[in-house]
């Protein structure tokens, strides 16, 4: 579409759905490649300094597909399209990512977030989970959910189950069946979760836990009983958790999620980790899960204060006079003045 716009001399804008810091990483490695032949796939250092990040990014936080040369060439081509755009609308908030937003000078960047769907409904099965939450004490439940593509093989499911049971904490766990190996099929719900869980687990934890299939994530995060969120760190999930002020424990799985986890834990310091440097196929032990969820649910006044500050910021950003509201208005005025609207 950018090429079509170029043929007709029409300016184009891009909507970038991930974090501004991720956009900065992509544009920086493309610039290094084009100007000096830098090949991030063969980078052997421990960390890489990137202008959109306050701290150097460790090698383990790079997107896992970065070693795929074909994928990397596609990423470079996309980054070049970004640079030719009249502007980029980013689903973020200036106060959340000021370092990244201020560093992106190759085109006009408009932080217009958070753009969220907070009106999701719940089916009958999900209503039962909400009713269960209604019976739990405030901020007592760990919510585990790994996104639309997040699912684990049986060996890892057993470790998560054993870790949750050993912790003694209340939990609501979204557990889905992975697609067949070797295919791109997404996860599906189990007919009966007992088939993959340890024998007797559902009965032993019936008083404190619940396992379910697909869940209305925003409704659950908004519930007063939820006190912590074990997340894959997709950017939408991250913004939703921030919006509702729910502390996160990071378990990134694919795409740019390790970058998001690094941002949350080490730059913003508003999250803990289950396994921040998780590698696909790795088994996270029951002991690591138990330790991680306990740390998530422990009171940390400094972390809670920072989380509340950012939660308030992203809500105010969309109000009249807020930073994202002003950025949207600036984008509209730019379209008008350029004849692009």
TrEMBL record:
InterPro entries: UDP-glycosyltransf_plant (IPR050481), UDP_glucos_trans (IPR002213), UDP_glycos_trans_CS (IPR035595)
Membrane-spanning residues: none
Pathway, per record: Pigment biosynthesis; anthocyanin biosynthesis
Annotated EC: 2.4.1.115
Enzyme kind, highest EC tier: transferase
Keywords annotated in UniProt: Glycosyltransferase, Transferase
Protein name: anthocyanidin 3-O-glucosyltransferase
Organism superkingdom: Eukaryota
């Amino acid at each position: 579409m950018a090429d079509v716009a170029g043929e007709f001399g029409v300016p184009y804008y891009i909507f970038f759905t991930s974090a501004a810091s991720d956009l900065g990483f992509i544009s920086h490695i493309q610039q290094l490649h084009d100007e000096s032949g830098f090949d991030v796939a063969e980078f052997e250092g421990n960390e890489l300094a990137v202008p959109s990040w306050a701290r150097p990014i460790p090698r383990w936080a790079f997107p896992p597909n970065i070693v795929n040369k074909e994928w990397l060439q596609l990423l470079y081509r996309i980054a070049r399209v970004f640079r030719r755009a009249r502007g980029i609308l980013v689903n973020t908030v200036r106060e959340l990512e000021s370092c990244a937003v201020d560093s992106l000078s190759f085109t006009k960047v408009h932080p217009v977030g958070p753009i969220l769907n907070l009106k999701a409904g719940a089916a009958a099965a999900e209503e039962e989970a909400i009713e269960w939450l209604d019976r739990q004490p405030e901020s007592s439940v760990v919510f585990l959910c790994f996104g639309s593509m997040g699912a684990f093989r049986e060996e890892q499911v057993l470790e998560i189950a054993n870790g949750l049971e050993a912790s003694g904490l209340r939990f609501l766990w979204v557990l889905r069946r992975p697609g067949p190996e070797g295919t791109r099929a997404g996860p599906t719900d189990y007919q009966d979760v007992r088939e993959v869980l340890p024998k007797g687990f559902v009965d032993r934890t019936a008083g404190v836990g619940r396992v379910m299939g697909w869940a209305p994530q925003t409704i659950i995060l908004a519930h007063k009983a939820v006190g912590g969120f074990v997340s894959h760190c997709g950017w939408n999930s991250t913004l939703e958790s921030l919006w509702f002020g729910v502390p996160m424990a990071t378990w990134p799985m694919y795409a740019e999620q390790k970058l998001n986890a690094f941002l949350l834990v080490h730059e913003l310091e508003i999250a803990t980790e289950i396994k921040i440097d998780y590698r696909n196929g790795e088994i996270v032990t029951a002991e690591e899960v138990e330790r991680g969820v306990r740390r998530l649910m422990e009171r940390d006044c400094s972390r809670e204060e920072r989380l509340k500050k950012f939660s308030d910021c992203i809500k105010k950003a969309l109000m009249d006079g807020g930073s994202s509201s002003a950025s949207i208005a600036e984008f509209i005025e730019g379209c008008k003045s350029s004849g692009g609207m």
